[in-house]
Task: structure prediction
Amino acid sequence: MKQKKSVSFIWIVLFFVTGLVPLTAFAQGTPADYERANGLKAKYEAAAIDIAGPATWIGNTHRFWYRKLSKGAYEYVVFDADTLQKKTAFDHAKIAAALSKLLATTVKANDMQLTTLRFDNTAAAFFATVDGAAIRCVVADSTCTKVDPPARPRPQGPVVSPDGRWEASINNYNVLIRATGSREPVIFSTDGSEGNYYEPRTITWSPNSTKLAVYRIRPGYKREVHYVESSPEDQIQPKFSSIVYAKPGDVLDLEQPVLFDVVVKKQINIDDSLFPNPYELTDPAWRKDSRAFFFEYNQRGHQVYRVIEVDAVTGKPRALISDEPKTFFSYRPANGNLADAGRRYRYDVNDGREVIWMSERDGWSHLYLYDGATGAVKNQITRGEWVVRGVQRVDDVKRQIWFSAGGMYPGKDPYFAYYYRVNFDGSGLIRLTDVDANHNGAYSSDGQLFVDSYSRLDLPPVLELRKTAENSVLATVEKGDITELAKTTWRAPEVFTAKGRDGKTDIWGIIIRPSNFDASKTYPVIENIYAGPQGSFVPKSFLTYSSMMAQADIGFIVVQIDGMGTSNRSKAFHDVAWKNLGDAGFPDRILWHKAVAAKYPWYDITRVGIYGGSAGGQNALGGLLFHPEFYKAAVSYAGCHDNRMDKIWWNEQWMGWPIGPQYSASSNVDNAYRLQGNLLLVVGEMDTNVDPSSTMQVVHQLIKHNKDFDLLVVPGANHPAARGDRYAAYGDHKRYDFFVRYLLGVRPPAWNAASTNATN
Result:
C-alpha cells in the first residue's frame, strides 16, 4: 500500500510541475525503456541463425547469390546449382576496408549495405551502390572503384540498319539516312524543329532494313523544383540547385510515331486517333518479320491503355488490345517482383500471332490470351476471386505459363504469394509451392532451375533449390534457426483480421507488443501507416527485427494495417483510392482498431497515435485532419501533403486527370485548418522525391489558422529525412519522444543532459 501511495504522490507532483497528464500508473517511456528498445536489434540479430533473404540469379549462369544473417553478422553468399556448393561471395573484411577508404566513411564488414547488387557472369566482380555511390569491386584482390551509375542508353551516333547497308541519325532535328560509308545523306524529313523534333533514342530499324520508325516530339513544360542546401559538407556558404520535376496538370511532351520507307524514300505520318492524348508511349518495336511495328499507349489520366500495331506498308494503326477501366489502369509493370504491385504484363507468342495480357477487367488481376491477328480474346487463362501477382516465365512450345498469385485459398492470408503453372488454354493449373507461407521465388535465365524463399512472421526463412521440370527439391540451401532467438524476449507479431467498412471484407494487420508486455496494464497504440495504392505493406515474411519492435518497447502497442485502397486484392478493394487518396483506408483501419480493443482490454483506443513517411506522411497528418475523434497524435515525415505538388507519375495515376476538386478534397494543405491533436512535421530540405514545399505549405496554413504544432527541418536530408539514412537515429528518438509526451503523458529523457559525445 505504501508503494502505491508513493507512486500516486509522484504522479501528482508531475502533474503540477510539468503540466503532463498522468494517464497511467506505471512507468513507461523511461530511459531504461529507451535503452532496452535501442538494444533490441543487436540482441535479436545475435540470436538468429541462417536467416536468408531471397535469391538473385547471376546473369545467365546456374549460380545465384543471397544475403543471410547469422549470429549478428550479415554475409553475402554465392551458391552453384550445378555442384550444389556454396561459398562466401567475397572477403567481407577486405571489401569493407576498401569501401571505407574509397568512400571516406565506415563500412562494417558484418553489415554491408550493398544496394542494387549485381555480379558479372563469372562472379569475379560485382557492382553495387553504397552510401549513394556507384561502385565496382573485384573479388580476387578486394579492390573497389567508383563508377558512373548505369544510365538509359542513348545513341551516340548513327543507328546502323540490321543488314549494315544504312545509317540513320538526326541532324538539325530531322531524320537523315545515308548508305554506310557514304558522305551523301538523304534528308528524310523536313518537319522537325526545336519545337517538334525527332528523338534519336527512338530510332528503330525494321529487321529487313527497309523501314524506320521514330518518334517526333513536341516538348511540354519543363517544371523545375529549386533547392537551397543550407549546410553543405564542403563549404560554409549554402548551395543552390534545381531538378526537372513534372507535377500533375503539367503539359507533357507529345510523342508522335512516324514511319519512313527507306526504299522509296517516303515519310508516312501515322493517324493518332487511337492514341490522341498520351501520358506515355513505349518505344517502338518491330515484329520479327517486319510486317508492323508496335507500341503501348498510356492515355493521360490512365483510364485507357492500348497496344497499338502499325502496318509497315500502309502506316495504318490498329488497337490490338484496349483496356478501358472506369477508374484507373494500374500501368506499372507486373515484373514478377512481389514488392511491386503493378498490373501491366504483355508477352508476345510467335511474333505477336498471340498475346498474353494481364487485366483486371473481371474485377481481379488475371491473364488472357489474345488472337494477334483479330485482337479478339481467345480465352481467359486464369480466373477466380484471387490475384495474379506476376509472370515469371512462359514456354511457347509447351504453351505453359509460370506465375505467382495470392488469395486463392479461403480463410488463408490473401497476401501470401504462391507459385503456379498453367496452360495457355487455362487447363492444368498446378500449385508449385506447398508450404503455407509467403513465397518469393526466382527462375534461372534458362528456366531449368527455381529458387524458392519462403517464410511467415512465425516461420523462419527456408531457401530451396528446385528443378523446374519435375518441381523436385535439389537442395535445401538455407533453413533459418530461431531456437536461441525464441529464448530471448523476441516474439513474432500477431496477425489480426477484422471486417472492413462493407461488413464482409477481411482487413489484415499485425500487432507488435513490447518485449516486457504485461497484459494487466493498458497501452497506448501507435499505427505505422503507408496507404499508397501501388502496393500492400503489412509484413508477411519473417522479421528477426523491425523498428516497430523498438517503438513498441518504449511502452506502446504498434500496429500496421492494409486498408481498402491498397493493392493485391480485388479491383473494387483497390478502387477505393480512385480520386480519393485522403480516404487512406481510414474507415477500415478504425474498425480494425476497435475490433482489437474489443478482444484485448490492454489495447487503449482512447490514446492512438499514427506515423508515416512520404505517402504515409500524407496519411499520418490526414488521420488528425479527417479523423480527430480517433487519432490523437501524429508524426508525419516527407509527406506529399497536396497531390498537386507531388510527382506527376504517382499522383495522376490515382487522383486522375485533369486536375479537379478531388485534389483539394484530399489535400492536407487545404484542410490544415481542421487540425486537432498533436502534430510533428519532419522534412528534409533536399528532398528530390517529394517537393519539400509541400510540407512548408502545410506549415503556412497551420500558422495562418493559429494552430499549434512541431516542425523539424533536417538540413541536407533527402527523402528519407527521419528514416533509413544518417539522420535515422535522430529521427527515431524525436518520434519516440513525441509519442511519449503526448500518448504516455510523461516527459521524455533529457537527452542534452545525458549526451557526452558532442561532435562538430
Remarks:
- Residues 1-25, 756-760 have pLDDT under 50 and may be disordered.
